[in-house]
Specification:
about 70% helix; alpha+beta; 3 strands; three-stranded antiparallel sheet; rod-shaped; 2 domains
Length: about 90
């Protein structure tokens, strides 16, 4: 019984320290991921671009055909740089 109370008290005392350590680790990982995403252009398909831009298939097709948006073809798919889509929607 005394051993169990000691264990519970010990865990309770360590909890804030553990939470701080975990929070710091998560924060660092998020910074790493964010840095990777800034340095790398992510390619998205036409459907995902349509959702971000809130336009229909015909609109994004026309923007691509007229040269307002650049796409890369991979097989039958058109892929867009996510940064281009986000910039275009500003």
């Amino acid at each position: 019984m005394q051993n169990e109370l000691f264990t519970q008290a010990f865990i309770k005392a360590l909890q804030p320290t553990i939470e701080q350590i975990v929070e710091k680790k998560v924060e660092n990982k998020l910074k790493e991921i964010s840095a990777l995403n800034l340095n790398k252009d992510i390619l998205i398909d036409r459907e995902e671009a349509m959702v971000i831009m809130k336009v229909c298939y015909k609109t994004i097709h026309d923007y691509t055909k007229k040269g307002f948006l650049q796409s890369q073809r991979v097989g039958k798919k058109h892929l867009y740089k996510k940064s281009d889509i986000l910039e275009f929607t500003k």
